[in-house]
Amino acid sequence: MKKLVFLSFVSSTFIFQLLTFNLSAQETKITAAVMDLEAKEGISAGVVSSITDYLRTQLVNTGKFDFVTRENMEQILKEQNFQISGCTSQECIIEAGKLMGVRKMFTGSIGKVGTTYIVNLRIINVESGKIEKAETEECAKCEQEVLLVSIRNIAYKIVGIGIRETVQPVSAQGGGVKETTWEKDGSQMVLISAGEFLMGSPEGKGAADERPQHKVFLDDYYIDKYEVTNQQFAKFLNAWNKDTDENGQKMIYEDDWGIKKAGAGFQPANGYDKYPIFNVTWYGANQYAKWAGKRLPTEAEWEKACRAGSTITYYYGDEKNGLKEYAWYIGNSDHKTHPVGQKKPNSWGIYDMQGNVWEWCSDRYDANYYKGSPYKNPQGPSTGSFCVLRGGSWCCGVAVPRSAFRSKCEPDFKFNILVRDFYGFRCAASAH
Predict the structure, then answer these.
(1) Residues 212-251 as b or e (16 or more Cβ within 10 Å = b)
(2) Are residues 365 and 387 in contact, defined by beta-carbon separation less than 8 angstroms?
């Protein structure tokens, strides 16, 4: 550290080289940088920038290289009066790599031919000037959310650790993410096709009630693209004309961020129409789902939709640092809920599956249920004092909003009245 103080007068280029040299010596990782992908036919510059940032994150998550951040890369090249915009030729990329003092440059392109996205990625050795490795990934008839799976795949392929996920359309028809608008409550729903997935956490990871990790087969079903909002729940309450369910159980508690009495009816708190409903009991969530002609998702349906084909810790990867891009949690929520759909969706186009509000599932909770869970369409225990909650909320730390994390609460908050601020839900519906 003393050396860095004495050398404070040198350019940021030399400082970066010194730092990366020290890191390489400690971690034996090769220094590298990622250039913006070249936009081909059918791809806008704005989309390319976002996809490149996502690619860089996935490459960092592999742990194989020490990558220069976008900010450092731009600063170093600016000091050298190097024009990074339009730098797509191999000669230009090698020159940029030399100026940054890195050994490898990741570069490539993304384009669209008809309905198929084509992603090309290659590694250039800065010293030799040769292409060391090249990979191509195609995503046929997929939306941009599903394209992210292809980006993740090519990141892992090019560094030689295999494909982490399989690009698979959600639609049984194979046409990418298939959505429908549910007439009763106006919600958008995503079709999840029938198939098998790996549920829970492997040995040595997660909590005891997430094990054993096991295979589950689910029939086709729909799940809400967004969490149910205050506006939607107020519409239900006004149609239902009371705040208790068909058995007299309380469904909702008034709140300044949620639902409030308005004369003889109910309305969202001012400015909170698009915020997720919370302070809702399991009975309220269940009755809303029935009213809408839907149901609460089973715990297995919730986890499959959350994972979106992945088997990793979070649906975007294993690194906690990426959570802020996909979820509202204690590190970025400012201690409150936020309007639905503001963060990035998972690769099946479903928003806020991690963070914002906990989500009720239809299942009763049993810590040992996975030990004897049915293979096909598990429904959870038939009895129990607690109901399952999934996804974490705005008040949770990074360890909680994992795809496999399980929580529980009494359906009416009987002994947990202080935690009701965290609980909301989304609905599901059988496809047949």
Answers:
(1) ebeebebeebbbbbbbbbbbbbbbbbeebeeeebeeeeeb
(2) yes
Q: Domain 2-158: which CATH class?
A: alpha beta
In the block, tokens 């959310």 appear at 145
**CA gap 281, 284 in Å, rounded:** 5
Global pTM?
A: 0.62
- Per-residue model confidence as pLDDT tens digits over 185-215: 999 999 999 999 999 999 999 999 999 999 9
26-36 pLDDT, tens digit each: 446 899 999 99
Domain map (residue ranges) of the chain: 2-158, 179-228+266-430
The dotted CATH code for 179-228+266-430 is 3.90.1580.10
Report in angstroms the alpha-carbon separations of 33 from 43, 71, 87, 94, 98: 22, 11, 14, 11, 11
